[in-house]
Amino acid sequence: MQVLGSGGPESQDKRASTNYLVWDHGSARVVLDAGGGSALRFGESGAQMSQPDVFLFSHFHVDHTSDFPALIFSSWFEDRKRPLPVYGPTGNDFMPSTAEFVHDLFADPHGAWRYLSELVEPRQGSYQLQPHNVAPSSTPVLIFRNANISLYAVTVIHGQVPALAWRIEIGGKRIVFSGDTNGEGEGLTQLASNADLFVAHNAVPEGATGVERRLHMPPSVIGATAANAHVKQLVLSHRMLRTLGKEDETRTEIKRRYSGPIQFANDLDCFLIK
Ligand SMILES: [Zn+2]
Questions:
Q1: How confident is the model over 218-234, as a mean pLDDT?
Q2: Homologous superfamily of 2-264 in CATH?
Q3: pLDDT score for 125
Q4: 248 C-alpha to center of ligand 1: Å?
Q5: Ligand 1: distance of its center to the CA of 133 in Å?
Q6: For the residues 232-251, what does the mean pLDDT come to?
Q7: Is there a smaller number of Cβ atoms within 10 Å at the N or the C end of the chain?
Q8: Are 38 and 17 in contact (CB under 8 A)?
Q9: How close is the Cα of 122 to the center of ligand 1, in Å?
Q10: How far is the CA of 88 from the centre of ligand 1 (A)?
Q11: Could you give the dihedral angle defined by the CA atoms of residues 184, 203, 188 and 234, in that order, rounded to the nearest 10 degrees?
Q12: Could you report how far apart the first and last alpha carbons of the chain are, in Å?
């Protein structure tokens, strides 16, 4: 699992915003989110947009989505022929659904980049983006399966924004991404059960209150989730100015509950799953 973007929305965290790659046998099989700056990191990683079997979104905040068109336009210059399925949440009054998001970007006649409408309206030449809305579920659900990969999602609470946590099963291993969530409910713990690697978002410090806490998990909640799910290793990402520099406190809070290995992610870090 490679972290392409280890930061949050702030440019002064000097990190790309959220993006993760799952590699298998030298190929980037799954892309999860595409925050600002991550398209550059994608190129630096050596991945190519002809490789992914599937593209996933946790939710549609800017720091998880804004480099998606950059990655897609990059694919235009590569030899991609097969369709690219795109899975993400349904919409509500605050956010588009995954299908709306893709069409708002690329579809005729109103898409911002409708000059790429071939991607969503079959014509000769282009491969197809195939967006799918994942219906909300409080328990993990199988969303996608091919010969190598199984993907499960569960709805998580991130304020009023429809949001998903994802589990990627590949090569007999389980990689789980919390996405942005305050950790409420049992769904994330169920999804992360016995994960080989659990990537959680370190967006707020212990003691956070108000909106910050309503949107994000403090270290104590991350630690409790990792412990209850018996995950084998924990990676902390989505690091923000309010948590950067507090790594010792964060680690201490988590260790009170979870005894496995804890690592803080930086852009382009790779985490081997043995
Ligand atoms: Zn975020």
A1: 98
A2: Ribonuclease Z/Hydroxyacylglutathione hydrolase-like (3.60.15.10)
A3: 74
A4: 22
A5: 20
A6: 98
A7: C
A8: yes
A9: 33
A10: 15
A11: -140
A12: 11
